[in-house]
Request: fold
Amino acid sequence: MKLMWVGIWLAFLGAPISDLFSGTYSAAGTVFGTLSLVLFVAGYLALIFRHTGRPLQRWLVHGELAALFVLAVVLPLTLGSPWLVLFVYVSVSAGAALPVRLSRFAIAGVTVAMILIGLHTGNDDGFVTALVVPSLLGGFAMAGVGQLVRTTIELREARATVAALAANEERLRLARDLHDLLGHSLSLITLKSELAGRMLPGQPERAAEQVADIEHVSRQALNDVREAVSGYRRPTLPGELAGARTALAVAGITADVPSEAPSDLPGDGLCEESEAVLAWSLREAVTNVVRHSGARRCAVSLTARQTLRGPVVELTVEDNGRGAAGATSRAAPHGNGLTGLTERLAKIGGTLEAGPSRGGFVLRARVPMGAGPAVGAAGSRGPVPGPVPGPVPGPVPGPVPGLDSA
Reply:
């Protein structure tokens, strides 16, 4: 792209090249003009390609621009007005290599110098007038391109900085959460272990009480860590909407996906668990569309509705593909994604409908708003494991359960 953009301006060299080989000059003049033109073009290309790829030092840029300007002044004065076109290249170089605040003055100055030298050489055929617009337009166009390149680089650096700061902030949050969750518990376990060790020879009963307290505290810490990890792993609806949009675009499917969840939900809106289940439903539905549907279009919608059981949020994912045969029933084989979604939704009082539509396949998942169903209700979750009430009378025989099995 850079080569094409730079190559466009080389078309203006037709005038000096034609004049050089027109037979007007002596052998010495032809050699002088040829070497000067080669030197000018080499300096121009070196400045444009090198500076736009990796910025040069300021003194080197100013030195190369000064050399190009001197050649652009000397050659028209010695060889004639056809060489005035070199000022266009000086203007383009100034626009590409200088900061915007300097390039605008340099471009105007180069154009004025071209006009003055053209008048001095006795140009009467309008050649100077024809070069004014290319000089100004080329210089300011390259200044705009250079500013665009610099802005793009700064934007990429800013994005990298924001990503690094976000990752660092997440690490700090995780460190704070772990400290708050485990700092006190581990300190208490350490103190009680030391106390039990001192009591063990002469007071085994009190030592057993301390060991039971240690087990109670460790179980509480284990439960806290589990809840924290579940929170970290819980998908969010905005994140899944963005992921669905990306996945469908990569698969070449025209996507109609909202940018965010509904903001006008009545009452308390979606609880964390309802949002997580709805996010899982969206992920599973989009995965099925990408892998199995063969669709060319997919529409996702989130709507707040009022039903006989109360307000719900309805997720609809509809495509124009061939559907998924055998995946529309709740009695689908064990391990089927839709069966898993049905179970997840049933635990919070939601429902799932999936089946062929007039133009393809449609999936509708409904979750209740506000707090989830009461613990122990039909079709709801069982009681959440909590800390063991009170100290255990004595040490429990057998190994202490681990994080994955307790």
Q: What stands out?
A: Residues 324-335, 372-406 have pLDDT under 50 and may be disordered. The longest strand covers residues 297-307.
